[in-house]
Structure formats: C-alpha cells, structure tokens
C-alpha cells in the first residue's frame, strides 16, 4: 500500500474539515441544483471532481509553487476565477423561465454540458485550491518511499471526498427545488443562488492575498 492507513485516515479527516465548509464551488453546485434539478446537478459534481484532479496534478508539477511565489500570477488566476463566477451568476439571473421547469432530453444534455464546464473551470481557476495541494499534501508524504504513488493516493482520496461532499449539497438543493415546486418560486430561488455566485465572485476578486 503506497500510504499507511493511519495517514490516509488523518488526511481524510483534515480534507473533510476543509471540504465541508462551503466555498464558491459549493455555492455554484447548490445554485445549479436549484436551477436545473438533480440530473443536471450531477454534471456539476463531476466537473468539480475533474477540476480537483487537474488542479492537484498541475500543483504537483510545480505550478502551485509558482503561484505561491508570484503575487501577479496568483492575482491573475484569482481574477479569472472571480470573473467567471460573476458571469455564471449573471447568466443564471437572466435565465428565462423555461430553463427552470421540466426540460426535454436535448435541453438537459445541453444544460449538463454547460454546467459541467462551469464547475470544472470555477474549480480549476481557484488558485487557493492549487496552493492548498502544494502546502497540504506534502505534509502526509513519507520521503523514504516513492513520491508518485503516495501523491496519487492522497489526491484520489481528496477528489473522492470532494465529489461525495458536492453530491450531498447538490441532492439537498435538488430536494429543496422539489419542495419549492412553483416556477415563480423556483425563479426566486435561482436568483437567490445567482446573487450568491455574484457575491462570491466579487468577494474573491476583492480579497487580499493571505
């Protein structure tokens, strides 16, 4: 086994403490589930998972070190992510009523592709995620053993927990959508989520680097 079981358990507990706290990605997943329902929300969850995989991979290749060292690179990536969050929020706010009610199979496929892309890009453009992997994962690496298998195992654990966490939020939001029921209330709920996305984007853009 590349990583000792006790190390995996400790890493999993620490990862859950980070993941459970809602951030821009979770706000986006919840908003998409409120807008489109559970089936389309699954695409959002998968997008988050792929975004975490790519973010972790490029972190371990040294990009995270660059972001940690370069204030300019960090700011550029942060502003890209913030701008995309605001763009998604505005698009959701302006969505027609037809997007909030039962859609055809083709409409759901198109929505799923778009939601998957949004979740992937928002997760990828979060520089704090990349720096997290650089700062956090090495603490659980045994330097007397091969690096790659250990890193792959820890990343897999984190991504798996991230997918489960995102799915739990999406299911809860989709159930709330079912309870809301009426299109006018769905529009209000969707715009409420859209406002959170816009607010999260603005907060991210204005936040100072720690």
Q: Which structural traits does this protein have?
A:
single chain; 210 residues; mainly alpha; 9 helices
Describe the structure in brief.
The protein has 9 helices and no strands.
What does the model show?
It is a single chain. The chain is built from 9 helices and no strands. By secondary structure, the chain is mostly helical. The protein is globular.
Topology (elements, then pairings):
Elements: H1 5-20, H2 24-36, H3 38-60, H4 63-69, H5 71-93, H6 105-124, H7 127-136, H8 147-180, H9 183-206
Helix pairs in contact: 1-8, 2-3, 2-6, 2-8, 2-9, 3-6, 3-7, 3-8, 4-5, 4-7, 5-6, 5-9
Q: What radius of gyration results from the CA coordinates? A: 18 Å
Q: Give the topology string: H per helix, E per strand.
A: HHHHHHHHH
Distance N to C terminus = 36 Å
How many β-strands, per DSSP?
0
Structural class: mainly alpha
Residue share in helix: over 70%
Mean pLDDT: 77
Proportion of beta-strand residues:
under 5%
Overall geometry = globular
Number of helices: 9
Largest sheet composition:
none
**Unreliable stretches:** 101-106
